[in-house]
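Hi support team,

I'm filing this because I wasn't sure whether my run with coenzyme A finished correctly. The job status page said complete, but I'd like someone to confirm that the output block is well-formed before I use it downstream. Pasting the exact inputs I used:
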Amino acid sequence: MHNVAITGTGVFTPSQTISNDELVASFNAYADLWNAENAASIEAGVYAAKDHSSREFIVSSSGIESRYVLDRKGVLDPSRMFPSLPARPDDEPGYMAEIGVDAAQKALSAARRSAADVDLVICAASNMERAYPAIGVEIQQLLGAGGFAFDMNVACSSATFGIQTAADMIRAGSIRTALVVNPEICSAHLEWRDRDCHFIFGDVATATLLERDEGLERRHFKVLSTRCATQFSNNIRNNNGYLRRTHDQTEDRRDMQFMQNGRKVFKEVLPLVSQHIADHLNDTGVAASDLRRLWLHQANKTMNDYIGKKVLGRTPEPMEQPNILQDYANTSSAGSIIAFSKYSNDFLKGDRGLICSFGAGYSVGSVIVERG
Ligand code: COA
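And here is everything the job wrote out:
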């Protein structure tokens, strides 16, 4: 068994942002348009009128203040409410590969490694822009990496599950170096016309370089332990898949985008995650008081506050459990890696921390690290 280390991370952040004010103004204009177009049916009681969204609700229920997106124009157009991301020709890089390569190159450069050192690329994300060839193989080719690549999807837990998958291969000795890439184009699977969730997601890509921990002289984080768990639930679901064309309803089916029963998710996922972390720490012999920082999944501030308090047994100081969701919103699997990437430079040799993601499945993945 070999030891494993994280030697570099990279984040691709889109250049375009949407503030809550801009988002709410466009949603409300869309709702007004829809209500006017459907006035007779609303009057007859066939449809309910669409209510306005509010910035105050978004901030108080989620902690989100802004989000990055690949195309703000399409999202903010009240007569469209969907990003304009036309399918790329087959001989051009896809969107996920393009932003994934950017993040991967940043991770390689942080680790002072080249693509030729990489034996495995995993593209781990909550939605893939096509069925095959695997996005991971496209990223491998664009980077100029050797070895092999594949895609995997465990929704919001894709990054930590990808890290465990890569770490296990490094531990076993079948590979030495792996890139886990998380291109999350959440704007394309969010229903921007649904007031209950239109504020939730943003776009980003992250990458994590893992290597055999042997003679590493550069700054790195030892992977002390990884753990994954799943428990089936329909409370976060997206039915988009290959059965779409055989369905006799219109193409505009609501269940072909992100759907959630937010309240149930809240109630059911919190105990699952808190227990998972407690068990993982206990079984690894790491006390919660040994952890300098928690880099949690970035979906909801109240959720993170609850988990931080449960794990540490007290209210965490801001830098013990840093959030990035106020600027990025929920970026699915990438969220905890953005937090880790942005808030780990101050770690000193021996400092320990925990990366944890959770979401649809349900799924929860945790990685205990120590600065080497
Ligand atoms: N603007 C204003 N009011 C809104 C609104 C909006 N955009 N969206 C919903 N509301 C209203 C609802 O109509 C409801 O009003 P009512 O009480 O008069 O019926 C009220 O706010 C509460 O709605 P609810 O959906 O129950 O809100 P909530 O407090 O549960 O917060 C979430 C919603 C989604 C932020 C929250 O449930 C959540 O974060 N859950 C977990 C999400 C998560 O982690 N998902 C994982 C995704 S990977």
